[in-house]
Amino acid sequence: MAIECITSAKLMTQPPKQKNERNENEESSSSLVFDASFLRHQLNLPKQFIWPDDEKPCMNVPELDVPLIDLKNFLSGDPFAAMEASKTIGEACEKHGFFLVVNHGIDAKLIEHAHSYMNDFFEVPLSQKQRCQRKTGEHCGYASSFTGRFSSKLPWKETLSFQFSDENNSSNIVKDYLSNTLGEDFQQFGEVYQEYCEAMSKLSLGIMELLGMSLGVGKECFREFFEENKSIMRLNYYPPCQKPDQTLGTGPHCDPTSLTILHQDQVGGLQVFVDNEWHSIRPNFNAFVVNIGDTFMALSNGRYKSCLHRAVVNNKTTRKSLAFFLCPKSDKVVSPPSELVNDLTPRIYPDFTWPMLLEFTQKHYRADMRTLEAFTKWIQQKQN
């Protein structure tokens, strides 16, 4: 690997500087604003967006050979296809936690609309986007980078996040939130993402059946656990950067959620850390990139891996992606099935609920490769 790339030794041994970053944030980050319409043309980046030399991105990295799972026969009820798909998914999750799904049953027009409607929001002036500004300690709303939380190693991106609920009494939660927050002009915008989230939730439950089969606990185990899920949808918008070798669109982290279903545009930028080096995942507009998060890693008692990944940017083209983060209902206790716990594989993580981990990542800790480990210690300290 090139010398400027992260090596496994550097990556895994540096202690997270959570407290220092939070103190810096309190002192100086409030005056910084990430206005993409201005910053995308700047040759000199604000220092807050320049990453340390040992964490700066490599633009030319090898491509990851990601398993491609064809869901067509599984979705039609073929038991043999389900077994084959679950086996392939299980192998991927034990190694790095990433795989692709095709023939997933999601309407191609819906995916196209979900991408195109992002422009309606992100390309308006900053003052208009700030009408739904994400508040400190919350996870929904508009965020221009993380300027409100941190003052160093800031990501070169804008996001719009909102809650989805699969509970019967929350049938229009996405549409209502976006329409109420952004105004009547965004009613169709809300309808598109309401439909998209419903489709993602349905697809997630199908994938949970395959994960349950692959772990030997039955296809209903995790499907039932995530029914009436209370998940998060995030629109990611990475504007061009004149010095893409100095910053990152999203820093190295493992998703704290259970399952991520990502749809990339054709620009590319997703990188995954596997076998001690970074790899790219080639965009495929017909496929979803799926990866395991920390919460499911805990549910599997550590069998399946929450993989380190990041996003790089470029100096020519805006990159967009759609990320659906599957999360369990608030009162569900994250505890592995009894089949996955025995004398040879004892419990690794304590019981917790998703709101506990969400609070930890929003108020106490910047998600990275050690989130679950740090969260475990935090829980144990609170219990003592």
TrEMBL record:
Would I find Oxidoreductase among this entry's keywords?
Answer: yes
Enumerate the InterPro entries for this protein.
DIOX_N, IPNS-like_FE2OG_OXY, IPNS-like_sf, Iron_ascorbate_oxido_reductase, Oxoglu/Fe-dep_dioxygenase_dom
Q: Name one Pfam family in it.
A: 2OG-FeII_Oxy
Any one GO molecular-function label of the UniProt entry: metal ion binding
What keywords are assigned to this protein?
Iron, Metal-binding, Oxidoreductase
- Domain Fe2OG dioxygenase, residue spans: 229-328
Q: Which reaction does it catalyse?
A: gibberellin A12 + 2 2-oxoglutarate + 3 O2 + H(+) = gibberellin A9 + 2 succinate + 3 CO2 + 2 H2O
Q: Does the keyword Oxidoreductase apply?
A: yes
Entry cofactors = L-ascorbate
Single GO biological process annotation from the record: gibberellin biosynthetic process
Pathway per the UniProt entry: Plant hormone biosynthesis; gibberellin biosynthesis; Hormone biosynthesis
Q: Supply the Gene3D superfamilies for this chain.
A: B-lactam Antibiotic, Isopenicillin N Synthase, Chain
Span of the signal peptide = none
- UniProt similarity note: Belongs to the iron/ascorbate-dependent oxidoreductase family. GA20OX subfamily.
**PANTHER family under this entry?**
2-OXOGLUTARATE (2OG) AND FE(II)-DEPENDENT OXYGENASE SUPERFAMILY PROTEIN-RELATED
Q: What is this protein called?
A: Fe2OG dioxygenase domain-containing protein
Q: Could you tell me which species this protein originates from? A: Vicia faba (Broad bean)
Lineage start: Eukaryota, Viridiplantae, Streptophyta, Embryophyta, Tracheophyta
